[in-house]
UniProtKB/TrEMBL annotation:
Pfam family membership, one: DUF1826
Family matches, as InterPro entries: DUF1826
Protein known as: DUF1826 domain-containing protein
């Protein structure tokens, strides 16, 4: 793993660049505002997900234990009418694997999982989330954008997370350190014809309080 103290590999200052899922624990290091796993998804799989009709993309919003994630995503694929295939199996297993890793990293008993199909400008303003930390992975479409804010202004340089690359961001509830100047947003895509498939995971200790 590498801590980007300068602009490195397309990441901003204060972003830990992970070589594998286990390296996402760089988020716990002092001075690290985000951890980016710059993996490359198989191009054949990417072509498959990009070629699906938007209405067949799975959607899901639920709070559950990490061990239930795979079944929940599989059920969402069934509801969307997504046919069984090796590509579908990879998506389910990848989301389940990221959920396991993130829950372990955050010591979370439960996760809030969102699998959103986005065709508009959702959350287009730069911000920091009111959570301890959040994992975001864009499986289809333009990735999450982020940058360093100076005096609360919008970032002067904006970085775009590669499609398929998981990004873990500290939120305002991260213990110890004050909120960093690293802000993020969803890319503006309205009227572009683009459809994004976005995974978001948040740690949850008590599902009753989270509802």
């Amino acid at each position: 793993m590498t801590l980007a103290r300068e602009i490195l590999h397309g990441a901003a200052i204060g972003v830990g660049v992970a070589d594998c899922a286990d390296d996402l624990d760089v988020i716990a290091r002092p001075g690290v505002a985000a951890a980016l796993w710059q993996r490359r998804v198989d191009p054949d799989w990417q072509a498959w997900i990009n070629g699906l009709a938007p209405e067949t993309l799975p959607q899901l919003r639920v709070i559950l234990r990490p061990g239930r994630v795979r079944d929940a995503v599989s059920d969402a694929c069934d509801v969307a009418g997504l046919d069984a295939s090796a590509a579908r199996d990879w998506l389910i297993e990848d989301i389940g694997g990221l959920a396991d890793r993130f829950a372990g990293l955050m010591r979370a008993r439960f996760l809030r999982l969102r699998l959103d199909v986005i065709e508009t400008d959702a959350c287009r303003r730069f911000h920091i989330d009111a959570v301890t930390a959040r994992l975001i992975c864009t499986y289809r479409g333009t990735g999450t954008q982020y940058g360093i804010s100076v005096d609360g202004e919008e970032p002067r340089r904006v970085f775009t997370t590669p499609t398929g690359a998981p990004l873990v961001l500290r939120g305002t509830l991260w213990p110890g350190d004050p909120p960093s100047g690293l802000l993020h947003r969803s890319p503006p895509i309205e009227r572009s014809g683009e459809t994004r498939l976005l995974l978001v995971l948040d740690p949850v200790d008590d599902p009753e309080e989270a509802i």
